[in-house]
Amino acid sequence: MKKLFVLALAVALTALLLAQNKAGESGLKKSPVGYRDTPVLPGQKWKVHDIDRPRPRQVTPGATPGAPPSDAIVLFGGKDLSQWENVRKGETSPAAWTIGNGYFEVKGGTGDLVTKQKFGDVQLHIEWSAPTKITAESQLRGNSGVLLMQRYEVQVLDCWNNLTYADGQAASIYGQYPPLKNACRPPGEWNVYDIVFEAPKFEGSKVVKQANATVFHNGVLMHNRKEWIGRMAHRVVGTYAPHGAEEPLALQDHGDPVRFRNIWIRRLQDYDQP
Ligand code: MG
User: Fold this and answer.
1) Distance 68 CA to ligand 1 centre (A)
2) What pLDDT score was predicted for residue 95?
């Protein structure tokens, strides 16, 4: 009797296992697409593997590394400066930097190149190339800058065999933190920055969250969520002053004919956004 019972149990178990592994109508092995009987994740409204949690929207990545994904705002795709204007001493004028074959170049004296759109928290991709004609040293060699919110500078500088202060070389958080490494390519070659930037937050005149960035230079990590002490400043410690939740992105006119290409940006979203 006991033997029969064990046999029956074994048969039942085998049948169950077979049923679980049985292919569905599609011919594919079945697997749950979510659960309702799992615990709630601490601090979230969702359960573990929640069947009702919104699935992320599909984005088509760029065909080649560095190419803009389908949901990026292309700020420069190689042809025109329609997304930009120049700002010099507070005066705005049509974008006057020089367009080349797939790139544009700083036209010294015309002012910073500033986006017409404003941004807060972003992912930014930008490529730059230092001038091949070397006429100066240190900070006067291939100097420009990526000025997030027109204030928080990730330095652009020729740092190929060019001695300068550590917190002013390429990919530094200018005047505050040197990059973790020097990953510069020689003048004339293209450098790539990938930056994740979080805007500061203010309550009245008080900073309640400092600006921070994660920066990759040619794929090498330079800053990991590093906080700005204050806005970019030269020879003094930069401080914060309240500004909008979104502000334009600017490229610095430091007088040197630095080139830029392939610039795109994505506003950062929180999880579970439709
Ligand atoms: Mg600069």
Assistant:
1) 25
2) 98
